[in-house]
Every structure is written in C-alpha cells, then in structure tokens.
What we know:
Oligomer: single chain
Number of strands: 0
Structural class: mainly alpha
Number of helices: 8
Amino acid sequence: MAFIQAQIPVAKVEAFTRLKDALAQTLSPAQVEKFLQVADGTGLRIRDFEGLLGKSVFDKVVAPQGGAQSLYQQLPASDQGQIREFYLSQIEEVAPTLRGKYRKLYQYS
C-alpha cells in the first residue's frame, strides 16, 4: 500500500496563495541564485524558514505585496505547516551545481 498524504484544506486562501507564489518565484531557476546569495549573508541555514523570514530574505528577492513574514503570520498553523513543507520540498530541488556552490547553507548544524 502506497503512502498517500492527507489533503488539508487551506483556511486563508488569498494570503496562502500570495506567499506560495512568492516562494515559487524566489526559488525559480531565474531567481534562486540571488536567493542563495542573500540567504548566505544571514549566517542562517537554508532549512531555517522562519529565521529567513525574520531576516526578510524573501522580500529582498521577490517582494510579495504585504511582505512574506506578514503573510506567513496571517496564516493559521495548518497553513503555515503547508507553506513550510512547500518551501522545504522546493529547496531540495535546487540544481546540484548551486547546492554544491552554497553547500555551507545546506549543511546540518
């Protein structure tokens, strides 16, 4: 029997969609290196989503209307979890050459 992830309905659709679209654009092949450069300057690891939000990293690459951190804070816990899961899955799909170049960001601890 294959694993099937449960679908959790999004509570705040507008804020969720704007933030997800901004993250997708930030992590697109055209913008991802700029994102990694900005993230590298923070001293945080790439998987520290909330820390990167706090440092306005996403706003420096693609500024969503209302700001990424503000949009994230508007979301209930279930929507925040889905956004974090989306982000974490997207950073793992970054090209291996860029992951190698910014390996310090991807290191654990």
